[in-house]
Amino acid sequence: MISTRGRYALRVMLDLAEQSQKAGAPKDYIPLEEIAQRQGISKKYLESILKVLVKHDLLKGLRGKGGGYRLTRPPAEYTVGEILELTEGTLAIVACLQDDQSKNPCQRKAECLSFPMWVKFDRMVHDYFFGITLADLLSGREGRS
Hints:
The protein is mostly helical. It has 6 helices and 2 strands, in the order αααββααα.
C-alpha cells in the first residue's frame, strides 16, 4: 500500500510541474506556503517531504525572499516509480523481494512455489510506475479514466 507520504510527494511534484508550466519559466521558485495551501497539506508535513526530495536532487530549494522550490529536470524526466520509491523505500509487495535481504533472507525462497508469481507481479508494478512520467499525468495520458 502506498502511504500518505508517497501520495503527497507525487502531488507536490505534480503541483510544481504544473506551476512551472503556467509560469512559463522552469526556474521560478514556488513558495512552500502556496504549495501547502493548494494541496491541503500542513506546512510542517510538507517540509519533511520536500526535504527528502531536495536531498535526492528531485527538487531545488531556495531560502529567503523569492525562495521556494522548483523541479531540477523537465516533468518528462521524472517517473512516478522514482518518486514513490524515494518516499516509500520499496514498492516490493512481499518481503522476500525487498532489496535488502541480508538481514532477514527468506529461508523458503528456493522451494517456494509462489515466488515466481510474486516476482512477476513485482515486475508488473515496477514497470507500470516507472513507465509513467509527471508529464504523462499532466497531459492526462495516464491516471484519468
